[in-house]
Amino acid sequence: MAKSKATVRVRFAPSPTGYPHLGNIRTALFNWLFARHNDGTFILRIEDTDVARLVEGATDMILDSLRWLGLDWDEGPYFQSQRLEIYRGVADQLVEEELAYLCYCSPQRLESMRQEQMKRKQPPGYDRHCRHLTREQRAETEASGVTPVVRFKSPFEGQTSFHDLIRGEIVFENSTLDDFVLLKSDGYPTYHLANIVDDHLMEISHVLRADEWLSSTPRHVLLYQALGWQPPQFAHLPMILGPDRAKLSKRHGATAIDEYRDQGYLPQAMVNFLALLGWSLDDKTEFLSRQEIVKHFSLDRVSKTAAVFNRDKLDWMNGVYLRGLSLEEFSQRAISFLERDLPSEVERLLDANYIHQIVPLIQERAKTLAEVPQLTEFFFVEKLEYDVDLLLGRIEGAEAVGALQASLAKLEGLQNWDAASLEAVLRPLADELNLKTGVFFGLLRVAVTGRTAAPPLFQTMDVLGRERCLQRLRVALDKLCSRLDR
Ligand code: GLU
Fold it and tell me: Which of 137, 214, 274, 385 could form a cystine bridge with 133, CB 3.0-4.6 A?
């Protein structure tokens, strides 16, 4: 046991052909968890050999996302584009040993072959034309100056099988595999070649990757056999589906991972949520710290069936994590969102003390940090924008005017402006005015916040302060009066 623990080496091997999304990061997380649980090594390898599909900035985004989630790597990042000689050497060796061959077929020929196959309803795949070239034909084609690709000689029949740690025994018919390309004419390796060469040289013990790569694995196994190398153990992680059970896509909010950060999800909530997309401790535990997940993570508890992404659950979890933050930490995190999203008229830098007073009033309600500016905007702006009808939601005009006038009279003389003193004068005032407290406080709430739903009224008024509240009550009164005059 101790030995296998010590030899766990896993890698996250993204292609920088787009920004990392939820599925990519779930793969990274599971590799990281597996490495940490087994005191193993987590390697980061950037598979940047598909030059035409590289996306500028994608590698940085991958590194940033991993850092944000605390998925620290022990080796790398290695870049495949810096290792081209190595792959070429292996391809040459395979050609030398006649396990692979040079293919001179032009893109035009391949295209018409493909058309023909479609017409005949045959499975697509290379027809092995160049596999059978004679020495003379080869010399002739070479003289024509075409740059060849290197193709692997797949067996015509038989089966290739491997044991998947999650999916069990997997068997592929070799007849379904064509002679796939190892080295492209631009000198870059294909995914298949570079991936297995690196997994071998980097002594990867376990390949944990998305389900979609399962169909590539028999090719990899054949390559390992051809090279006389011991393959790593494979574990294909379950797919992630949207709530409608279609493959997760942008439509389900499965946008690039940095958008979750920008929308105010906490890394610890994200890690917890992602860990449960395909893994579970038991059938009920939802909240686990990073340490607990590391402690318990095992492939035995990774499910064979697809996981379903549920945005509402993520929001709920994030809300729970937000409520668990200390006042200090919540404030610190909230500040950057306030700085970013409050209307430009609000003067920056924001006052940290003031934010400390506001935060306890909304910490219970925010599901994401990006909601904080919206929930608290009325604490910061000078002028509230709301429709006078909002004041008249549950009360009739003349009565509202009377209630605001009476409130102003009481509050202007109030000695101490704090929540308890405010409550002590306003609660009895509802009785005096013969109004239900809900109706009366509702009116005051709209007057001081501009909205019907806001944090507890007296605390809010306390934090807003005397001048702002009195001024807002006067503005509300003016609004009502000018409405009534009309
Ligand atoms: N470069 C592949 C990807 O983008 C790696 C797949 C694998 O892990 O083998 O996911």
Answer: 137
Which architecture, in CATH terms, is 84-237?
A: 3-Layer(aba) Sandwich (3.40)
Domain limits of the chain?
5-82+240-312, 84-237, 325-379, 389-485
Q: Which two tokens stand for residue 470?
A: 């009195």
Architecture of domain 325-379: Orthogonal Bundle (1.10)
pTM beyond cutoff 0.85: yes
* Top mutation candidate among 213, 215, 237 for ligand 1, by most atoms within 8 Å of CB: 213
> Is 250 a known active-site residue?
yes
**79 pairs with which residues across the strands?**
46
- Catalytic position from the list 250, 295, 410, 479: 250
| CA–CA gap between residue 86 and residue 178 (Å, rounded) | 24
Q: Could you tell me the mean pLDDT of each successive run of 10 residues in the chain, 486 residues long?
A: 66 95 96 98 97 95 97 98 98 97 93 94 92 90 89 97 97 96 96 98 98 97 98 97 86 82 97 98 96 98 95 96 97 96 95 96 96 97 96 95 98 97 98 97 98 96 98 98 85
Q: Of ligand 1's atoms, which has the minimum distance to the CA of residue 191? A: 1
